[in-house]
Amino acid sequence: MYQDIKAISEKVKAESEFIKVIFAEFNKVIIGQRYLLERLLIGILADGHILIEGVPGLAKTLAVKTLAEIIDVDFKRIQFTPDLLPADLIGTLIYNIQKSQFQVKKGPIFSNIILADEINRSPAKVQSALLEAMQEKQVTIGDDTFKLAFPFIVLATQNPVEQDGTYPLPEAQVDRFMLKLKITYPLYQEELQILRSKSKNTDEKINSVFNADYIKKIRDIVDEIYVDEKIEQYILNIIFATRQPENYKLENFKNMISYGASPRATISLIKASKAFAFISGRGFVTPEDVKAIGMDVLRHRVIISYEAEAERLSSEDIIRNIFNEIEIP
Questions:
Q1: Alpha-carbon span 300 to 316, nearest angstrom
Q2: What pLDDT is stored for residue 168 in this prediction?
Q3: What is the CATH class of 18-199+209-214?
Q4: Fold of the domain built from segment(s) 225-325
Q5: What is the pLDDT of residue 67?
């Protein structure tokens, strides 16, 4: 076993060097936001969709677009609006008069990286059209079903400030997102750099450093990253503590959680932890990897009760207490 761990560690160390190159390219356009870039990379390496929440002007859209350029894959930005139709997203059938038959006109969903901008501004029928693409990696138009290209990742943004004219995402769809990120304002020195760089009309050229084939190669390596049985038990204890907190010395939260994390959260947490270990240049997962990515995996999956809202407790408060209480292996 030791030899296996050593072998995968050497492989990870050799291949993870490209992470530095990605950061260098990314920093040509985006100042700061390392947390955002790391999580975007985790989504790509772990094959997971990401929901990004933050006030306007934090470079969420620019970050996604820049990453697509670095990867050299197709990128589509879809602005979600109340009048958006499913056909605007996935495509539709158009009648060809010359051939006297219907032909498929594919929509913008047929791309590699989809930026669903302000996703909560569209109604449920649009959300359901996106759901099949996210979960099944396929789209049905009329009687035909089309497989989506590799890789396929949805990076959705939502604005927490404006609630008028928005449609809360269904819990079933929120659970399809591997990670939910909360982006905050930059630090003082970072914003000073932004001020100075953006006051000049100079555009840095972004270089593509890897492609879809390389992503597949890296994903295969991430799958090989070693996870000890104790780490697996640690992850399960965290997930089960969100469902049965009274069994983990968290009796105070028994009535604070309406719904705990689903089995999809368990899968997402182990896959995201592996990707985080890869970014850190290691061939094995540590408890610190799980804790580092755990909040992003769980914050949208732990549904709090009215009692928790009355106590002004958020899902993040409960998750922090769970991580503090669960014994680290």
A1: 9
A2: 77
A3: alpha beta
A4: Helicase, Ruva Protein; domain 3 (1.10.8)
A5: 85
